[in-house]
């Protein structure tokens, strides 16, 4: 599909800039070239722990952390998240995402190592194109990160919306990063959500990240003449 391919090319740099710590640095690329090349494949993983974020508290590192409702994108999306996150200060965001195409909203914890970002792009994307968009993003990431370790990819329904997601560990100059990326059409545009943390924190944060994504609720599209959602 030529039109969608053009959108993917336009989004390639945008996607890579959303990953924390500049994932395509020269050191990581050199390491990947020195290692035997293997076909990207989804690793067999143990069943993901179910986390219920509709409860008042969630257990994180043996501490009961309150869970709150968070509205973003002018109320177009509501989700549940642990009360550990705050909006990343603009000065820190400019250092971690040194581009004017940085995500619209970036949440981070006190250590600035656990991040959840949302970027509503200007690229058209319909509900019907989400699955193909996700497959194209997988292709882009496989080419950009040949040493990536894949966990899961899928296209699911959340609050009656089609959502594609990718779970992958990618190399960075200061360690390995776990990334959950998800894609959804909002107002006919591509919205990219990105959760990331250090790979050493994956056991704690992977199920919480998935749970946050799965609690998303979407306000109807109120554009005159536009279809709902």
Could you name the key traits of this structure?
229 residues, alpha+beta, Protein Transport Mog1p, Chain A, 5 helices, 27% helix, globular, disordered N terminus, disordered C terminus
Structure explained in plain terms:
- The chain is α+β, with helices and mostly antiparallel strands.
- It has one domain: Mog1/PsbP, alpha/beta/alpha sandwich (Protein Transport Mog1p, Chain A).
- It contains 5 helices and 11 strands.
- The chain has helices at 2-18, 26-34, 90-96, 130-144, 202-214, and strands spanning 57-60, 63-72, 77-82, 86-87, 105-108, 115-124, 149-158, 161-172, 175-186, 189-198, 217-218.
- A 7-stranded antiparallel beta sheet has the order 4-5-6-10-9-8-7, sandwiched between helices. Strands 1-2-3-11 form a 4-stranded antiparallel beta sheet.
- The model is unreliable at 1-7, 20-26, 36-45 and 223-229 (pLDDT under 50).
Summarize, please.
With 229 residues, the chain is α+β, with helices and mostly antiparallel strands. It has helices spanning 2-18, 26-34, 90-96, 130-144, 202-214, and strands spanning 57-60, 63-72, 77-82, 86-87, 105-108, 115-124, 149-158, 161-172, 175-186, 189-198, 217-218.
The CATH C-level name is Alpha Beta
Helix and strand composition category:
alpha+beta
Q: What name is given to the CATH topology?
A: Protein Transport Mog1p, Chain A
Distance between the termini: 24 Å
> Strand count, sense and closure of the main sheet?
7 strands, antiparallel
CATH architecture: 3-Layer(aba) Sandwich
> Helix amount, in percent?
25-40%
| CA gyration radius, whole angstroms | 17 Å
Give the name of the CATH superfamily. Answer: Mog1/PsbP, alpha/beta/alpha sandwich
Give the helices and strands as they follow along the chain: HHEEEEHEEHEEEEHE
Q: How would the global form be characterised?
A: globular
Count of individual beta strands? 11
- Give the mean pLDDT: 83
Low-confidence stretches: 1-7, 20-26, 36-45, 223-229
Biggest sheet strand order reads 4-5-6-10-9-8-7
Query: What count of structural domains?
Result: 1
Number of helices: 5
The amount of beta strand, in percent, is: 35-45%
């Amino acid at each position: 599909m030529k039109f969608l391919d053009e959108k993917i090319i336009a989004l390639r740099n945008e996607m890579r800039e959303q990953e924390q710590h500049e994932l395509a640095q020269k050191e990581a690329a050199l390491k990947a070239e020195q290692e035997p090349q293997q076909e990207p494949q989804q690793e067999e993983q143990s069943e993901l722990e179910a986390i219920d974020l509709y409860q008042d508290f969630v257990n994180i590192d043996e501490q009961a952390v309150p869970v709150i409702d968070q509205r973003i994108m002018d109320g177009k999306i509501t989700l549940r998240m642990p009360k550990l996150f705050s909006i990343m200060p603009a000065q820190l965001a400019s250092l971690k995402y040194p581009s004017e195409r940085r995500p619209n909203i970036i949440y981070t914890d006190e250590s600035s190592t656990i991040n959840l970002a949302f970027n509503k792009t200007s690229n058209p994307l319909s509900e019907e194109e989400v699955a193909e968009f996700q497959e194209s993003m997988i292709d882009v990431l496989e080419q950009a990160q040949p040493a990536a370790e894949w966990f899961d990819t899928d296209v699911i329904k959340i609050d009656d919306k089609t959502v594609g997601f990718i779970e992958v560990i990618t190399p960075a100059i200061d360690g390995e990063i776990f990334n959950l990326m998800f894609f959804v059409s909002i107002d006919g545009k591509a919205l990219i959500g990105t959760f990331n943390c250090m790979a050493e924190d994956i056991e704690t944060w992977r199920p919480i990240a998935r749970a946050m994504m799965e609690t998303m609720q979407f306000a109807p599209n109120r554009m005159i003449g536009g279809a709902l959602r």
